[in-house]
Every structure is written in structure tokens, then in C-alpha cells.
Design goal:
- The protein is an alpha/beta fold.
- It has helices spanning 24-28, 30-44, 58-70, 125-136; strands spanning 8-11, 19-22, 51-55, 73-77, 87-94, 97-104, 113-121, 140-150, 164-170.
- A five-stranded parallel β-sheet has the order 4-3-7-8-9. It has a two-stranded antiparallel sheet with strand order 1-2. A two-stranded antiparallel sheet has the order 5-6.
- Helix 3 links the parallel strand 3 and strand 4 (73-77).
- The chain is globular, with a radius of gyration of 15 Å.
């Protein structure tokens, strides 16, 4: 099965000049979704980790399924003002502007090993922000998993110290 058939692109969204990659078609198709999940499960089968960290909001979809199937705790990284209680924040630059992620201060304990799940690796900004939040809490990122990787933005070169895995690799901008 070709997962790339379930990742569609849209020009000029959310801004002119940006190509938006949408994996909602993968979520809609049960066979394709299960195939993708099984690919992630296969990749994770020999990894030693404690928690899955899913990133707002598209990362919650498959991240929560992986946490459930692997019987691991699920931690959420969210956009500002969506988490009650004490939080840590990390600002970052993305392909078309600035953003910020937040995590509960008690979400990760010192020494815990985590897997980050996010829908897309564009540039490295969002991934690095998530890694920084986890490390500030004393956690260790064992791998970052993505449905789609935009190789043409070279985000992976800034994540050379991190194990990364993606199902769909887009080599050049359309």
C-alpha cells in the first residue's frame, strides 16, 4: 500500500506560497490508517520508551492510537492557552511564521524516555521546540515519528542527534 496516496496537498494554504500537506484522507480510510499504524508499530517494536508525546492537534490522532496499542501513557503538547495548570512554553519559527507549544510541567518525569508523534516534519522548528520542552522536564527523546517529511525543507539536518522515522518523504516542493 502506498501511504503517499492518502496524503494530499493544497497550494496557497494557509498562506500564499505555502503547500499544505493533509493526511486526513489517511485517517478516513480504515485500511490505509491501519497499514500506517502497523508501520509505526513495527518501527517501535524494539524501542525502549515510557510515553508517547503527541503534538497538537493532528498528532493526537495517530499518537493516541499508538499509545493505546502499546499500552503507554499519552502526553499532549498543545498550542497556547489550551492547558490548565503549570506549563512550560517554547516558541519557534515555522515555514510561514512563528508559533508556540506548551506542555504540563508534570507531564514528563526526569529520566523518562519518550517518542514524539507529529503529522509532519517541515522545517525543524516545531520538532526542536517539542524536544526542548521534553528535555527541560528531564525527559529523553528516543525518536520522532511523522506521517510526512518535507525533505526539501531540510528539517532533518537540524535533528541529526535524534532518531527520526517518516512514512512519506516529499523530495521537492510542488
Amino acid at each position: 500500500m502506498k501511504i503517499e496516496n492518502y496524503v494530499k496537498h493544497y497550494y496557497d494554504f494557509p498562506l500564499t506560497g505555502v503547500v499544505y500537506w493533509d493526511f486526513s484522507y489517511l485517517l478516513k480510510n480504515v485500511e490505509a490508517r491501519n497499514f500506517a499504524i502497523n508501520q509505526f508499530l513495527e518501527y517501535l517494536k524494539n524501542k525502549d520508551f515510557d510515553k508517547i508525546v503527541a503534538v497538537e492537534s493532528k498528532g493526537f490522532t495517530i499518537g493516541s492510537i499508538l499509545a493505546d496499542r502499546l499500552e503507554k501513557e499519552l502526553v499532549l503538547i498543545r498550542k497556547p492557552n489550551l492547558i490548565p495548570g503549570e506549563i512550560l512554553s517554547e516558541r519557534f519559527i515555522k515555514e510561514y511564521g512563528q508559533a508556540e507549544y506548551q506542555i504540563k510541567k508534570d507531564a514528563i518525569k526526569s529520566g523518562e524516555k519518550v517518542i514524539i508523534f507529529y503529522d509532519i516534519m517541515a522545517g525543524s522548528g516545531a520538532s526542536k521546540a517539542c524536544i526542548n520542552l521534553i528535555e527541560k522536564l528531564g525527559g529523553k527523546v528516543k525518536a520522532c515519528l511523522y506521517v510526512t517529511e518535507l525533505e526539501y525543507l531540510s528539517g532533518k539536518k537540524d535533528l541529526m542527534d535524534v532518531d527520526t522515522f517518516s512514512l512519506v518523504k516529499i523530495k521537492e516542493k510542488l
